[in-house]
Amino acid sequence: MSCNMHTPHEHVHKDSCGHTRIQHEDHICYLHDGHLHFHHNDHYDEHVIEVSDKNPDGCHSIECDGKHEEHGCEKIPHGDHWDYLHNGHLHHVHGDHCDDHGSVQIVS
């Protein structure tokens, strides 16, 4: 397995660091400034929510005002683009609407 290392990264992620924790496959990633960080050995890897049946890409229109940054929603990497994390769902701004790109599990 190759690493996609995030460097430099002096912040140490932990349960109480304040960053959103996402269940990603069989591990926890920390959402930090639009990046998913996974602690691996002595460094952090950059992870991405993979496009899948659970988290599709493409046009899946939903009702949404599209003002995610104004609402404080965090950007999250998904496939080859970024979505916004909105109440546990991936919202992708697409023209004059948002697409639902599935849900993720936020770990409290």
Give me a quick take on this structure.
The chain is mainly β and 108 residues long. Helices cover 0% and strands 49% of the residues. The chain has one domain.
The radius of gyration computed from the alpha-carbon positions, rounded to a whole number of angstroms, is 14 Å
Number of helices: 0
Quote the beta fraction.
over 45%
The N- to C-terminal Cα distance equals 28 Å
Helix content: under 10%
Largest sheet: 6 strands, antiparallel
Features:
108 residues; mainly beta; 0% helix; 49% strand; globular
Task: Draw up the topology in text.
Layout: E1 5-6, E2 20-24, E3 27-32, E4 35-40, E5 43-47, E6 61-62, E7 74-78, E8 81-86, E9 89-94, E10 97-103, E11 105-107
Antiparallel strand pairs: 1-5, 2-3, 2-11, 3-4, 4-5, 6-10, 7-8, 8-9, 9-10
How would you characterize this protein structure?
This protein has 108 residues and is mainly β. The chain has one domain. 0% of the residues lie in helices and 49% in strands. The protein is built from no helices and eleven strands. It has a six-stranded antiparallel beta sheet, with no helix packed on it. A hairpin with a 2-residue loop joins strand 4 and strand 5. The termini are far apart. The model has no long low-confidence stretch (mean pLDDT 89).
